[in-house]
Structures are given as structure tokens and as C-alpha cells.
Amino acid sequence: MGNPKVVLGVSGGIAAYKACELLRRLTESGHDVRVVPTASALNFVGEATWAALSGHPAGTEVWETVHEVPHVRIGQAADLVVVAPATADMLAKAAHGLADDLLTNTLLTARCPVVFAPAMHTEMWEHPATRENVATLRRRGAVVIEPAVGRLTGKDTGKGRLPDPEEIFEVCRAVLARGTADADLAGRHVVISAGGTREPLDPVRFLGNRSSGKQGYALARTAVARGARVTLVAANTALPDPAGADVVRVGTAVQLREAVLKAAADADAVVMAAAVADFRPAEYAAGKIKKQEGRDPAPVALVRNPDVLAEVSADRAREGQVVVGFAAETDDVLAHGRAKLRRKGCDLLVVNEVGEDKTFGSEENEAVILASDGAELPVPYGPKETLADVVWDQVAARLA
Q1: Both 234 and 382 in a single domain?
Q2: Are residues 332 and 261 in the same domain?
Q3: Residue 202 pairs with which residues in a beta bridge?
């Protein structure tokens, strides 16, 4: 079958140099990459660089090697087209079907999944013309990744920064794995919680858990790859922001509740993958609790934290909203899971067995997805992205 064929389109923004890192990750992972820059992009990174890194010529014009009909053949042969960076000008041309160079012709002839990774100043990203162009592309099934927030050119800071190339690569990998141009979550807003809450005991100590956030981040990446607008509520994670997700950072269960309820107000689906502490210390010590010789420490009184999953399930912000919970159990996994599903009132509950060497911090997971109608779907041991895609399959079916 050969290596997957990827077209890397590069348009004329200062972030063009970052596409070199994306190209390296694609080629090193076994993809056959053809770089198609615009003429403006070559002002930032020269043609020789693209040719050397990809092993293919990197022309910009339809008039080069005319006998090979490159303006048609490149798009026809591609398994994926990714444009990174995608400038406001490129998004406008793609949305309106303009074809004045090799890249825009390639976009018109491609019948494979297309991913755009925008990069521009905040004012350009927020302009109504750009927003309408993005909406048009998404309606047609293209994946348009939300840009990151950070330092732009000059002294400016804001939304419009090209996401980390490694995270763009993960989106591309997820899109290729699905092997379809059908972005079945396009136009949907999904909210995902990830990580583990920490409940402070004093300025240096807290009650916490072993959750790394990797499953929640996998859910975010796969949702982006399926066209969704993603809000990721991240509790105490040390992972890079998934490309295309709006990340809200929280620490405690109370903070997580506030962030989830705010984001869920217009969400089509809420997936509670975070490990939320059931209890928190009743009192917070303003100073470090000191060890006293010859005396046992005073007992730590605990109070209940809000049950965010049950609250979201019981008081859905909009009709048809799908709510998914996660249950980490150590014994009688399915029995506890079925009881929790009834108690929480969610549509789906992903149940898995956890322990010191199971699930937490791992790249793999296995689970059983329990549904409120009594259905049970086992998901065998494998990458967390695989479980995430199965969860979104179930969510998409209910949204449809």
C-alpha cells in the first residue's frame, strides 16, 4: 500500500519556519510528504530547504513540470492535505474556491481530508470575514484548528499563534487514522475535563490523585480532528496544549465545577474525564502544618466536594446535550460502574480498572462504555486515542 501521501501546504506567514518541524515529524514517522509553498512563503523559508527536508521538489506554480499536470495530480494522489501556517488570505482563497497557484489548485482537486492550521494576528482572526471563511470551510468538512494564544510578531500577544508543530502532527495523525474526510463533529462544541484536582491542606500540601490527564487530552485531540470546537478544562496537568483546543486551567474541584458549567452553557457534549476529588479539607491552614515531636498529627476533617458530573447531567444547559462520565474503579468494576451510571444520570459512562501500574500515566487504556439504555461496549487494550475515538463515535451517534 505504501506510505501515506501528505501534502504540506505552507502559506506566507512568519510562522512558516515552524512548518519545518511539522515536516520533520511527518517524514520521520513514515509519511511521504510533498511540500507546496506559496510564493510568499518562500520569502520566509527557501525552496531548497523544503526540497532537502522532504526529498521532493517544492514548486509554487502550475507552469512547472506541466507535462505531469501537478495542479491536478498532487491533490488527487494525496491521503491528507495540511496547510500550516494558513494565513487569512489562504483561508479566504480556499473558502471561495480561488485557484491562482499550485497550492490553491491542489486544495480544489483534493478529495482527501484537509486540515488548516491558521496563524495570523488576533484582529485578523477575529475579523468577521475570516470567521465566515472558517465557518464555510468547516461546513464543507475541512478541519480548521483553532490558533493558540501567545506571542505574535513584534510585541503583540493574543490568539492567532500557530499551535505547536508536535500537536498539529497529532491532529494530522488522528485524521489519517480515521481515513475519512467526514468531520462528524463539525459545528459542534464539546467540553472535556482532564487531569486531577488538588485540594490544598496548607501552602505546601494537598490531597490529590495520580491522574496525568492523558486520556482527556486524547479526547481533545481526536475531537479537534473530527471538526469540533473544543474547550479543555485541565486540572494540574503537565502536558502541551492540544492543537485547536481552548484550554482553561484549574486547580481544585470547585474551580473545575465553575469552569465546566460556564463552558457547558452552549456545549453539545460534555465529557468528564478528569479525576475530581470527592472530598477536600474542611479547613485550610494559612501556614505550613509543623511536625511536633512526640505528638501525633491532628486528624484532617474532610467535607464533600460538589458532584460536577451529576450536576451537569441533571441540569443540562441545552436540549439534546450528551453527557459522558468516567469511572475509575479498583474492584467489581462493572458492578460499581452500573451503579454509578444510575446515580449520576449521564448518557454514557466509561469504566476502567485503575491502580498504581494501570491506566494512570500510561499511553494505553482499556474500558467498557456503559450506556443509559443498558448497552455495554468493551474497548480492548490499546492507545488512549483509540478509546477516545470510540467515545466520540458513541457521542456523534447520539447527537445525530
Answers
A1: yes
A2: yes
A3: 205
- Whichever domain contains 94, its CATH number is 3.40.50.1950
Our answer to whether residue 236 is catalytic in this structure is no
Distances (CA, A) of 24 to 34, 53, 169: 12, 7, 10
State which residues form the domain around 255.
Answer: 189-399
pLDDT of 272 reads: 98
- Closest of 71, 27, 389, 266 to residue 19, by C-alpha: 27
Tens-place pLDDT, residues 162-218: 999 999 999 999 999 887 656 789 889 999 999 999 999 999 999 998 889 999 999
Amino acid at 165: P
CB 191 within 8 A of CB 274: no
Cis-peptide into 85, omega within 30 deg: yes
* 184 lies in some domain: no
> From the annotation, which residues make up the binding site?
278, 288, 306-309, 326, 340, 344
pTM of the model as a whole: 0.86
The one catalytic residue in 105, 133, 209, 236 is 209
Cα separation of 179 and 174, whole Å? 9
Q: Express each pLDDT in 337-390 by its tens digit.
A: 999 999 999 999 999 887 555 556 688 888 999 999 999 999 999 999 999 999
Mean pLDDT, the chain, rounded, equals 91
Residues tagged in the binding site annotation for CTP: 278, 288, 306-309, 326, 340, 344
Q: In this structure, are 99 and 196 located in the same domain? A: no
In sequence order, which ranges of the chain are alpha helices (DSSP H)?
A: 19-28, 47-54, 70-77, 88-96, 102-109, 122-126, 128-139, 165-178, 214-225, 253-264, 308-314, 333-344, 384-399
pLDDT at 71 over 90: no
Is residue 149 domain-shared with residue 54, that is, in the same domain? yes
Query: Residue 183: inside a domain, yes or no?
Result: no
- The total number of structural domains that make up the chain: 2
